[in-house]
Amino acid sequence: MSPTTSTILVTGGCGYVGSHTVLSLLESGYNVVVLDNLSNTSFGNSTNATTAAETPEALKRIQRILSIEDKPIPFYAVDIVDRPALVNIFESHPDISTVIHCAGLKSVGESGRVPLDYYNVNIAGTVNLLQVMEEFNVRRIVFSSSATVYGDPPKIPIPETSPIVASMSPYGRTKVFLEHIIRDMCVASTVKQSDYEKEQTRKGAAIEKDYRWSAILLRYFNPAGAHPSGIMGEDPQGIPNNLMPYLAQVAVGNLEKLTVFGQDYPTKDGTCIRDYLHVVDCADGHVAALEKIELEESVGNFECKAYNLGAGTGCSVLDMVRAFSKAVGRDLPYVISARRPGDVPNLTADPSLANKELNWKAVKTLDEMCEDLWRWQRNNPKGYRTV
Ligand code: WQD
């Protein structure tokens, strides 16, 4: 199936990773439809989601980068819990071949305060989506999972064979549950196909249907940075939870200083180590996953497989403060505080499986990540919105 004939539905396509993935897909020649409930993206000039529904800022930025302002990107201001709205999208776009599923609530801290919201949107919303996909015979999904599924892993760097645990935040548990749900669905579809084929053969009838699913679970480590154009980047609502967008707000003066959550971890400088990868590399990983599914299905393989999307290098919080200070051109202020509940000392990927089987590798450097983030943030100093 060539890019020009297949349409990809990107849920959460106005979010940080989702919007960069939409851009990467369009650059690779795919047709794209975008769904987003606009709960964590800029509304641009509009003051709320309903007035921004026609063309969210994130998609306008993509159009500017690609100089396709005259070519609207099909967009639906929809929440994945809204089943009739999902049905409408699939009815309106019968050419959707695959879903890249990035939509979901993603704050570790917030999930501990409102777990039911996280289980409703992330779990029930995804089950909703999968059921509607099945109804429309769309059986390919690339799922936005997370390194958080590894909990506090026994081995660094972390291979995909490291056990996945449900002992972190409710947010982390939704990712673990969803990996199991998607895997169970794929296994059941293979059994269903086998039973169907046996029955058809018994009846001497042709095999006309294929119930099998293909799924790739992408375990993101820590996406960071912004598009090199400076036109697009992380544009969260509210005060950022994650390190790099928070640090970027400090750099533009919207926040006073960074609070470093703990300096007593068993690491080189006492602060947590993470595997930061450029968001553009992360986005390209989704296109690589899509191409992998298409390749495997062309030879009759229908699998559910997880891959780490990481650079394979670990950086401490203080490493990142130093690297971003260098890009900004001045030392950014920080204070050390107590540990943040749920943080683990080190999450660094072993990316060799994705390198080999997806033919994908994080190629952008830490300096590029910081320079691109600074270019984006200084172009967009308006800061977070407390909506
Ligand atoms: C990184 C490091 C913090 C903020 C989580 C999710 C993951 C993904 C990314 C959604 C940690 C420290 C942070 C701050 C700090 N979620 N930190 N001060 O926790 O590795 O991953 O977010 O996309 O699935 O698990 O990312 O950026 O929050 O934290 O010291 O103000 O920076 O303690 O060590 P994390 P993070």
From TrEMBL:
Residue ranges of domain NAD-dependent epimerase/dehydratase in the record: 8-186
Keyword terms of this UniProt record: Carbohydrate metabolism, Galactose metabolism, Isomerase, NAD
GO function term, MF aspect, one: UDP-glucose 4-epimerase activity
GO cellular component assignments: cytosol
Catalytic activity of the protein: UDP-alpha-D-glucose = UDP-alpha-D-galactose
InterPro entries, sorted: Epimerase_deHydtase (IPR001509), NAD(P)-bd_dom (IPR016040), NAD(P)-bd_dom_sf (IPR036291), UDP_G4E (IPR005886)
Biological process terms in GO annotation: galactose metabolic process
Enzyme class: isomerase
EC number annotated for this UniProt entry: 5.1.3.2
Matches recorded under Gene3D superfamilies: NAD(P)-binding Rossmann-like Domain, UDP-galactose 4-epimerase, domain 1
Domain NAD(P)-binding intervals: 206-372
Signal sequence region: none
Alphabetical list of Pfam families matching this protein: Epimerase, GDP_Man_Dehyd
Cofactor: NAD(+)
Pathway linked to the protein: Carbohydrate metabolism; hexose metabolism; Carbohydrate metabolism; galactose metabolism
Assembly and binders: Homodimer.
Similarity annotation: In the N-terminal section; belongs to the NAD(P)-dependent epimerase/dehydratase family. In the C-terminal section; belongs to the aldose epimerase family.
Function text: Mutarotase converts alpha-aldose to the beta-anomer. It is active on D-glucose, L-arabinose, D-xylose, D-galactose, maltose and lactose.
Protein name per its UniProtKB record: UDP-glucose 4-epimerase
Biological source species: Entomortierella chlamydospora
